[in-house]
Structures are given as structure tokens and as C-alpha cells.
Amino acid sequence: MAEALKDMFNKKFYERLALEFQKADKNFHPDKFVKQVVKDIDALSLNQRMRNTTMVLKQHLPADYSKAIDILSKVIPEFKSHYTSLLFPDFIGQYGHDDFKLSIEALKYFTQFGSSEFAIREFLKRDLNKTLGVMKKWAEDKNHHVRRLASEGSRPRLPWSFNLDPIAKDPELTRPILEMLKSDSELYVKKSVANHLNDFSRINP
């Protein structure tokens, strides 16, 4: 599966991505971006391709973080519900820690087009209590993608991501989130709660 997914990050995709960024930012140079991002791409795994994309984008977007987020926010709707949309929250996960409020708001917005479940973990890793406080509010959000993010992003053992050991050791940390979501109207959200609980059952069988 990872092999098939990594092939989504190909030259054709990057050419389309570059054109969308050029529409949102007249200073964006699509040819330079594509040339740089596809260099040695064949040797990169799925996660490496995504991270490489994030790193190259950083060099081609404004140095002003808020301006970069504004541009990303304009482009992401063009990649809704596509695996490649994960690169947008990944940018925040890597470069957004000096502006917690703006980054959290952007992750909430981005997750409605794909998922910010991996990127939010970067914030949980750095400031667990502050980030969980935000995610408890997300559990009551009217948008089901945001509610799911509250559960999925705080899973102690999310596949394809690093472990959140403080949560694994203390299930009470995410219990309020799970209590609010266990009877959610959306099956999509309830499945995340079930996966979250399953993580705990594997940690403490």
C-alpha cells in the first residue's frame, strides 16, 4: 500500500501542485519548485517524499509564516480527500511551533480536506496539556472531521506515526475526549474512538 501511495507524489502531481501555488502566490516559481522537489525522488519512501515536499515548499513560500499559511489555505481545497493533502498539515507540524494559535487554527481548517492527525501529534509531543485542551474543545465541534481529529490525533499508538507515551501511560488524559465522542452521530468518529480504545487494550491487555 505504501508503494502505491508514494507513487502519488510524482512529477505530474508536483506540476499540478506548483500551478495551484502559482495561482495563490504570484511570486511562486513552479518550474524551479518542480525541478527541486523531484530531484532523486525515486530513492525516497512515502514518508520521505512527503517530508521532502514540505521542506522544498518552505524554500519557495514566503518567510513570513502567516503569509505562508494563507497561501497553503488557498491551495488545499484543490486537493480535498486526497492522500497528498497531508503535506499541508505536515508543513505546520514542522514549522508552526512558534505560533501555536495560528497553527492550531490552520490544522483545524486543513483537517476538513484530509486529516491533520499526524501533524497535531507534533504539538502534543511538545506541549501535551495545552494541545489536549484544544482537542477537548474540538470534540464538541460541529464539523465531524474536527471531532474525529480530537480522537484520532491523540491516539497513543497511531499507525505510521510516533507513539505518545504519556497518553499510553495515563488513559485518563484522553478520557474526556472519548466520553464526548463515544456516542457521536457519525460512524467515522465512532470508529476513531474504537481504534483509540483498542490502542489502550493492546498496551494494557
Task: Describe the protein's topology.
Layout: H1 2-6, H2 11-24, H3 30-37, H4 46-60, H5 65-75, H6 87-95, H7 100-110, H8 119-126, H9 128-138, H10 144-152, H11 165-169, H12 175-181, H13 187-203
Helix pairs in contact: 2-3, 2-5, 4-6, 6-7, 6-8, 8-9, 9-10, 10-13
List keywords for this structure.
63% helix, 205 residues, single chain, Serine Threonine Protein Phosphatase 5, Tetratricopeptide repeat, mainly alpha, globular, 13 helices
Number of helices: 13
Succession of helices and strands:
HHHHHHHHHHHHH
Integer-rounded radius of gyration: 17 Å
**Integer count of domains:** 2
Describe the structure.
By secondary structure, the protein is an all-alpha fold. The chain folds into 2 domains: 1-115; 117-205, Alpha Horseshoe (Serine Threonine Protein Phosphatase 5, Tetratricopeptide repeat). The chain has 13 helices and no strands. The protein has helices at residues 2-6, 11-24, 30-37, 46-60, 65-75, 87-95, 100-110, 119-126, 128-138, 144-152, 165-169, 175-181, 187-203. The longest helix is centred in the last third of the chain and has 17 residues, at 187-203. The two termini are 29 Å apart. The model has no long low-confidence stretch (mean pLDDT 96).
